[in-house]
């Protein structure tokens, strides 16, 4: 019979392995997103593993972990700090299946969330000012998985990266946003021959189309509807 100590050792070993693979994906593979490289080099990233991608229970766990992340985030500084949810047990899904699970997971986070939507952004995924809100704060969500058609999103596991919307606003206030954006797009073009066709600046189109990384057409409808409590 497995002891509690052995279970903890296994969990720690797995956590270390997951973190190492993810760090290699960003740093050793010279990921085109220079902001991702920065937060990893500065250890300004929190990686947590989950099971049952898309489930209600995982949504509740994610909500509590993101609340803790927000409590530890200093909104008065210009530091960048990213929360990453990894699903090591998830089988390698197609782009369409991953997109379905991504929105199912976000829906379940929202159902458990009693905080009002961040007033700085829209709660309508068809609105150009849409951004996903958790615990009263807007997030730009980046979905990644091994079968993504975009090389920059071919993470070793199914992954949801939660980037605070205010961090992009800080870059604008610092006058660095356009330079960072252009550098990332140049590097992405070098990696794959062109930028992700879904990428647009905030306010130009709904960012909901960008979350899964899958190329979608004008007929695409976001499966998320804001639940008014």
Tell me what you see in this structure.
There is one protein chain. The protein is of the alpha+beta class and 229 residues long. The chain has one domain. It has a five-stranded mixed beta sheet, sandwiched between helices. Helix content is 40%, strand content 13%.
Ordered list of secondary-structure elements with their pairings:
Blueprint: H1 4-28, H2 34-41, E1 45-49, H3 56-71, E2 82-87, H4 95-112, E3 132-134, E4 137-144, E5 158-164, H5 165-173, H6 177-192
Parallel strand pairs: 1-2
Antiparallel strand pairs: 2-5, 3-4, 4-5
Helix pairs in contact: 3-4
List keywords for this structure.
single chain; 229 residues; alpha+beta; 5 strands
Please state how the strands of the largest beta sheet are arranged side by side: 1-2-5-4-3
**What is the helix tally?**
6
Regions with little confidence, pLDDT below 50 for 5+ residues: none
User: Total domains, how many?
Assistant: 1
Could you give a short description of this structure?
This protein has 229 residues and is α+β, with helices and mostly antiparallel strands.
């Amino acid at each position: 019979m497995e002891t509690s100590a052995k279970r903890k050792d296994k969990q720690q070993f797995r956590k270390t392995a997951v973190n190492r693979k993810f760090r290699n994906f960003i740093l050793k593979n010279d990921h085109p997103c220079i902001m991702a490289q920065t937060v990893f080099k500065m250890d300004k990233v929190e990686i947590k593993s989950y099971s049952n991608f898309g489930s209600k229970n995982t949504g509740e766990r994610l909500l509590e972990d993101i609340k803790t992340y927000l409590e530890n985030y200093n909104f008065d500084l210009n530091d960048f700090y990213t929360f990453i949810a990894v699903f090591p047990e998830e089988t390698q899904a197609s782009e369409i299946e991953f997109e379905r699970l991504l929105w199912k997971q976000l829906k379940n986070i929202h159902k458990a969330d009693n905080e009002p939507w961040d007033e700085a952004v829209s709660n309508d995924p068809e609105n150009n000012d849409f951004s996903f809100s958790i615990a009263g704060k807007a997030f730009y969500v980046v979905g990644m998985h091994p079968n993504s058609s975009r090389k920059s999103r071919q993470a070793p596991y199914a992954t949801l990266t939660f980037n605070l919307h205010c961090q992009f606003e800080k870059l604008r206030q610092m006058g660095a946003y356009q330079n960072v954006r252009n550098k990332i797009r140049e590097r992405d073009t070098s990696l794959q021959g062109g930028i992700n066709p879904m990428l647009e600046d905030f306010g130009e189109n709904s960012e909901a189309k960008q979350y899964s990384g899958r190329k979608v057409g004008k007929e695409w409808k976001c499966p998320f509807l804001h639940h008014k409590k």
